[in-house]
Amino acid sequence: MVGALIVRGSCLPSPEVTFLSFMKVKTISRDEQDYVARSGELKKVYTNLDPSLHTLERPKEYVRALNATKLERMFAKPFVQALGGHKDSVSYLAKHPVSLMSVYSGGTDGEVFGWNLSGWNSLWSFPAHRGAVTGMSVSPNPSINGRYTLLTCGLDMRIHAWPLSDSVGNMQAGVVTYMGKNAFQSVDWNWQEKSTFVSAGAKVDLWEITRDTPIHSFSWGSDTVHCVKFNPTESNIFVSSSSDRGIVLYDSRQGSMLSKVILSMKSNDICWNPMEAFNFVVANEDHNCYSFDMRKLQTATVVHKDHVSAVMSVDFAPTGQSFTSGAYDRTVRIFDRQAGHSKEVYHTKRMQRVYGVRWSMDNRYIFSASDDSNIRVWKAEASKPLKTLNTREIKAFNYKGKLQERFAALPEVKKIARHRHVPKPIMNAARLKRIVRSSAQEKDRRRRKHSAPQPYQAERKKSIVRAEE
To answer: How many angstroms separate the CA atoms of 334 and 316, rounded?
Structure first.
């Protein structure tokens, strides 16, 4: 056969014949070539946004919002992992400012752990104190020999500075110890200066890392100070809470106290908003969290309710739009910074009283330390998958979120979105609190009805006893 090649018994045209046979093929345009190249991909859809062509736009989007809300609750599985290793209750948590896979914890037996989140295991552990670990803090900037430093304090009247070898959080030799005259309750690094930190105990002490004695001491009254935190933006401002139910603002630059507010009950923890330098939130014994503006301590800006027991710890998200809280009622809740009630509640059957909570620096996870000697990892968004999303998935999530925001006030969507299952003891305690509150309101209404006119007191001022300057 002329002009053909025989390959394994089959007859194929030769290259010359193939070339000659395709010489008469019709040429196609550039647009047609692009269409042929994209024939396996999705075809482009053109949308006309003329309202006259979309008469049922709102009903269709309402159905989509309702379905999106149902799917969100169906796929809400926030629990990720439990980190076990402590032999006693976990009393404190600290996170690394740079490394997203490093978390540190201290127990009531004095043992300190460094955790590697990439492998869900512990990097190291050692007995740091002869009593409970009451405070931990990682330096925001490299301090000793260009390394990050982990501060730990305990009831044994000691503060230890542990140098970390790298940003991953491995421990390095060369610990520095600072001795005190009383037990320490809290410690925190200065966010701007590399060599200054503050501690709380019988009084508030300001330390220089190169000196073994405090450079300045603050005292407003003689009560024990339980918590102290530096402002992440204004490096010379820090706040403390004490057992006399007071919250005090200090200025390290002037070496003096600025103002003090007395609440009706003691505050257990404080956290500054990382995006708003003048706002902070406190965890109180009266089952509530209070947001304050440090420029006006006479009233709280928001009262955050829903816990049914004392709130032990709070921590802001790195975006500053939300914060998480852990309480004695064995739950972890998430609040919007301007919302009075929680938008999420996390709990498990085995989790006991929560002593510490931390929000990861990538805004994806929440860590909780509880009385059952475990550290639990939760998703910051309960229904969002942990995998890497492609562009189409991100757009779909954003579209569904906007639909839920648009129809959030409608009864069907609102009922599904706000429903949460909680343990029966918490549900009963919340019901009892509602009954007590409604009874008090009815009693106040009747008293006002049969007495002289009296001014109403805002809910944001009821828990404040007085403010001092």
So the answer is: 10
Rounded to 5 degrees, what are φ and ψ at 196? -125, 135
> Per-residue confidence at 171, pLDDT binned at 50, 70, 90?
low
Please check whether residue 247 is in contact with residue 261, taking contact to mean a CB–CB distance below 8 angstroms. Answer: yes
In the beta sheet, which residues pair with residue 57? none
Q: Domains plus CATH for the chain?
A: 54-76+390-419 (no CATH), 79-389 (2.130.10.10)
| Segment holding 103, helix H or strand E | strand 102-107
* Single pTM value for the model: 0.83
pLDDT digit string, tens, across residues 234-288: 889 999 999 999 999 999 888 888 899 999 999 999 999 999 989 999 999 999 9
Nearest Cα to Cα of residue 346 among 370, 309, 386, 379 = 379
Instruction: State the DSSP code for 144.
Output: B
Question: By CB neighbour count within 10 A (0-12 exposed, 13-18 middle, 19+ buried), where does 118 fall?
Answer: exposed
* Tokens of residue 10, six digits: 């089959």
Three-state SS at 146? coil
